[in-house]
Amino acid sequence: MKEEQERVVRKTELLSRIGLSDATIWRMEKLGRFPKRIQLGGNSVGWLKSEVDGWLADRASERALGEAAAQ
């Protein structure tokens, strides 16, 4: 089986996928509530796609738990 290489998500793609502002993501990172960015060189940063996907999955799970508790 071929091992898949980890993909890096750049800021533009991240902002469109997450729907939060750059400042909000930065604040959440500092509070440990969002995956940490990785320095790619110079002023370039990115996030590991698997970590961002995991963060999104956690948000979806929290929503599902909240909906179940409300019933």
Q: Can you characterise this structure?
A:
By secondary structure, the chain is α+β, with helices and mostly antiparallel strands. It has one domain. The protein contains 3 helices and 3 strands. It has helices at 11-18, 22-30, 49-70; strands at 8-10, 38-41, 44-48.
What would you say about this model in short?
The protein is an alpha+beta fold and 71 residues long.
Oligomerization: single chain
Q: What gross morphology would you assign?
A: globular
Write down how many β-strands occur, each being a DSSP E stretch of 2 or more residues.
3
N-to-C SSE series? Answer: EHHEEH
Q: Termini, distance in Å?
A: 43 Å
Number of domains: 1
Beta strand %: 15-25%
Query: Which regions are unreliable across 5 or more consecutive residues at pLDDT < 50?
Result: none
Q: What is the typical, i.e. mean, pLDDT?
A: 89
As a whole number of angstroms, the C-alpha radius of gyration is: 14 Å
What order do the helices and strands come in, and which of them pair?
Blueprint: E1 8-10, H1 11-18, H2 22-30, E2 38-41, E3 44-48, H3 49-70
Antiparallel strand pairs: 1-3, 2-3
List keywords for this structure.
three-stranded antiparallel beta sheet; alpha+beta; 55% helix; 3 helices; 71 residues
